[in-house]
Amino acid sequence: MFVDVHLTNRCNLQCRYCYFKEKGEKKSNLELIQKTLEYFLNPESREKTFFTFIGGEPTLEFELIVNAVRLGKKIARKNRRKIFFNLVTNGVNLNGERISFLKENNFYIVLSFDGKKITQDYQRTFPDGSSCFHLVESTLEKLIGQNLTFSVRMTVMPYTAKNLFENVKNFFQKKVSLLGIVPTYEDKWSDDDLDVFKENFRKVIKMWAENFNQFPEFCILPFIRYLKTWKDNDFFFHPYMHYCQVGGVTRYSVSVEGDIYPCHRFTSIRDKKFKLGNILKGGINLNLQKCFNKKVAEVKKEIDISGCFALNYDVNKTIEKPLRNYQRFKDIFLQLIMEIYQNPLYKNFLNRINLFPY
Questions:
Q1: What is each CA distance from 41 to 28, 45, 73, 77, 194, in whole angstroms?
Q2: What would the pLDDT profile of 251-279 be if each residue is shown by its tens digit?
Q3: What interhelical angle do 133-145 and 96-104 show, nearest 10?
Q4: Per-residue pLDDT at 105 exceeds 80
Q5: Phi, psi (rounded to 5 degrees) for 257
Q6: Exposed, middle or buried by CB within 10 Å (0-12, 13-18, 19+), for 128?
Q7: pTM recorded for the entire structure
Q8: What b/e readout covers 261-292, taking b as 16+ CB neighbours within 10 angstroms?
Q9: Of 186, 280, 294, 321, which one has the fewest beta carbons inside 10 Å?
Q10: Is residue 91 a contact partner of residue 55, using CB atoms and an 8 Å limit?
């Protein structure tokens, strides 16, 4: 089971592509966090439960994270449940002491970091426009230095697609082993933009393959899954780093008010038609959940590439109409995959790729 726990709607950065609709001063509290933990760690279930602290920027409420970990471990022991913690952060607020705490408690961290300074300064700055690059770079170095389990999530916009290869090369040289490359599918990508993206990604693959012996742990999500699931000129396309678990694997997201949604993207939209219940008012309404899952299953049957249901709704006001860019990017990745499989120089690379657990 996966539970996204929103600690605050507040954020200390201003990102061009931010999807969060209601930024502000609203935040969760320890009572709500405790009830969330007790609800999802109930003794009737024996599932592993992964709690992901998210925002806004969750490290703005780091004391709440510390107390949540303490409570979560206590409740998990009492109810004989297995609990794991994740954190999605922009990295600005993580000093050495906080990183040590995360390491001690076996956190998996997703660091939102878009690349070299020219890209980061275009896409992610402080509200006054000043750069956050050196702070985030310092955090990255600490995560690497203390050997934490983490990934870097790199967002690519049309304007910064030309920097894609150099940004990936930079992370490769810094020994970032797990890198997620996520285009902004909701943006207006021209044919020229897509060509630039494809050519840069082609260079990324070449660098990856040529340096595999130098850094065998290096991996790009979700592209590695595309390589591994490619068959008969097709593959399972999903737009983000990890598989969408909406409507299938149990996933929930809890807002700062205690409202329960199918995932964090639906939480950001806050449309009551996707609300599944409230932690403070009885928890999940099973009828609402059943209706939502049924609708998702129907859409998946009708649409070849459903993409992100929340993003579909955010842009098209219906989960049934996918974004045009899903197919366009799938075509790009399919072409690159076929180039790899047809080139004998990539044979050893492909053999080793199949050994990766991702």
A1: 19, 7, 10, 10, 45
A2: 899 999 999 999 999 999 989 999 999 99
A3: 40
A4: yes
A5: -90, -5
A6: exposed
A7: 0.94
A8: bbbbbbbbbeeeebbbbbbeeebebeeebeeb
A9: 294
A10: no
